[in-house]
Amino acid sequence: MAYDWGLRELQNEAANIFREFLPEDSTFQSQISFCQYAVDVSDETLKNVCLRYLAWNFEDLIYSPAWTKIPFFLVKALLSRSDILVRNETVILHGLEKWAALQENTTIPKILLKHIRFPMLSAEDLYRLDDSQYHTSKLQGFQFNALPVSVLLSDLTEKGDIYTPRIYNGKTWSFTFSSQEIRAYNHSGLYIFGGQRIRSEPPGSPQVVEDGGEEDEEELSGGEEAEFRSSSGRGSLLTRRGITLRVLLKDGLVEPGDGVLAIHYLGKNFVGDLLNDGKIRWVETGQIFNSPSAWATHCKRLVNPAKKSGCGWASVRYRGQKLAQYKTTWLHKYQPSADLSMVSEEDDDEDEEEGKAVMQADEKNKNNKPDVMVSRRADRERIPVRYCSLGTRDAARDPHTLVELSAFSAINRFQPFNVAVSSNVLLLMDFHCHLTTSEVVGYLGGRWDTNTQLLTVLRAFPCRTRLADRDTASAVEEEICQNLFMRGLSLVGWYHSHPRGPALPSLQDIDSQMDHQLRLQGSNNGFQPCLGIICGPYYHGNQGVASTITPFWVVPPPEQRPNDYGIPVAVEVTYVQDNFLTSDVLNEMMLLVDYYRTAPDLVQFNQYWCPETTMMDKIKGSLSCHAPKDQAYSQILEHVYSQLSNTH
């Protein structure tokens, strides 16, 4: 309007306001319309601001519904830029293929295809391009991958754009400088890059770190060590504090070597050399530590500054085995009458390989897809038991026995990852669980950031199938996998309901969760968490009308008790309120209504949940706890509720 009336000052002020709103719309609809407006009024400044925002958020843009409706001129303008932020050039090409297909083009328009920087594609990705439209460009890409720069010098000069990388943040293009590496660099002026040690100052004599915390073992002098050995008869009381790495070295239980010691803590790996004198040299910085506890405490504090001291012998591994086990072996050999109960105490102190199982997943589990869970008995009033009362696995025990959750602190652990869950995920999950008196299941999509150890849950994928229906399960899973891929998400967990019971895991749930954790971890021993969520919509022990939603994880049993059940622990979660109720969520809700419309176990929403509260009031009240910021959502959901009312 300001443009039509020639009100230049008002037009400029409106443009400034537009800039402020750019980050507010996660759907990208506003940014695209602003850019269109800027072109219409020839506002180059606003146009460049919008294009830069879209370029810096390009990967999210191409996975959004708005990408398929983006105009040709805007696609061309974006592809010509070098400040596009994506994992690699292949992501841009796949996004362009999707855009062209939805414009009903059999091939990508040549004027757009020439903006794809094929020399920036890896040889593997180039090899996978089969379409004839790529033949000429593939050759250019292979040449760049295979030939030296001196041969390509003329091409590099004449066709500079296609040889100019964009802002790629994927592997081989970038590296992460973590907080622990920064601390190590500030401490010693040294860091590792490309497998080499980089130092900012001439190397001096290695620093010896002696602070090992409260549990640090005492170093013995030569005389004390001899006295210790002579007093190690059958009548003496031997404690673990008297056994040092020097003792184990002299008695031949361990040998010095490079890279034979390791610590795995909260997804971070530390490697150390065992020296001839029993001291430890940290490979990354060259620092010298007097004892395992000193090294373990130092490394853990780099990752988690709030970490208190613990047993380094239970945290440090020698050639894959805990050092504490070598202490045990020494005691068996030289103190057969010693009370070994105190040996196992420290083994339980900390198992820092969070989420790593004691068994390997079958080869078939590499597809990272949990199976749809098998049918369970209907929920009934069951009294949860404490984990400590379970003991060893017993085939006669009811697999539907509910187990109370432990806290990480109760088992001397720190939660090995942070979790953020979108409110739209909770809303769709809660809606699904409310529809039927039978148990339901679904999967969770999101992203895992290994650098920040943050698991972000962005989308729920309800399984529109019966738990016992194995015939349709694979088709439903395949559809969910395609949806995950199209949205650029990974499988990060699963949810299920206990319709009338407490939202606590059963023994069967614990085993299922452990299986899923192993499958998501795969066979490369890399750490990726798998979140389990239980929703209890109709349990009368709930507070008010809101469902109880319980995120949980399973810690493997101690290595010395492999036949015990896994330990279910409560996961602390940050709930993030979405700005809007997305069309994806609304569409999924309508599909669920259609699926359960004629089901015999559909909840009768005109019946009463309790005096003066109908089932419809119950679901409305529970879903309001997961409301987005935009209050117009309630009007949108009224349409869904009206469809539910018409199912009876």
TrEMBL record:
Keywords: Hydrolase, Metal-binding, Metalloprotease, Protease, Zinc. It holds the Pfam family BACK. One of its GO terms (biological process) is proteolysis. One of its GO terms (molecular function) is metallopeptidase activity. Belongs to the peptidase M67 family. Probable protease. Acts as a sensor of N(6)-methyladenosine methylation on DNA (m6A): recognizes and binds m6A DNA, leading to its degradation. Binds only double strand DNA (dsDNA) in a sequence-independent manner. This is MPN domain-containing protein.
